[in-house]
Write a structure and sequence with these properties.
By secondary structure, the protein is mainly alpha-helical. Helix content is about 55%, strand content about 0%.
């Protein structure tokens, strides 16, 4: 996967907003895996992947339905940003440790209480 920038995280969170809450963690991991696969495809064949783009998280995310960007104090949007960060972190840890078959732990998701 190409280097992850702020815009990649925002695009990923926007895509996750269109996914039902119970399926978001899996969707976040799939999004990161698709970006990685697209980058390997690009390097091997010298062209972008037809469905997942150029290997950036943003390209993979914007190829899916996505919601408009929300404010950072929106609890649902904040949870989606956290999930994208957790998915990237999980992907990096698996690459560094070489643990390919490990099952990912559920990320810690903060539930916001409105006052």
């Amino acid at each position: 996967m190409r280097p992850v920038l702020h815009g990649d995280l925002v695009a990923g969170a926007r895509a996750l907003l269109c996914v039902p809450r119970g399926l978001r963690w899996r969707a976040a991991r799939d999004l990161v895996a698709q970006a990685d696969a697209a980058d390997r495809y690009r390097r091997r064949l010298c062209r972008i992947h037809p469905d997942w783009g150029n290997g950036t998280l943003m390209a993979a995310a914007l190829g899916r339905p996505h919601a408009p960007e929300r404010r950072l104090d929106d609890p649902d949007y904040a949870d989606c940003l956290i999930l994208v960060l957790e998915a990237v972190r999980h992907w990096r840890q698996r690459r560094w440790t070489g643990v390919i078959g490990a099952r990912p732990a559920k990320p810690m998701v903060f539930h916001h209480v409105r006052r």
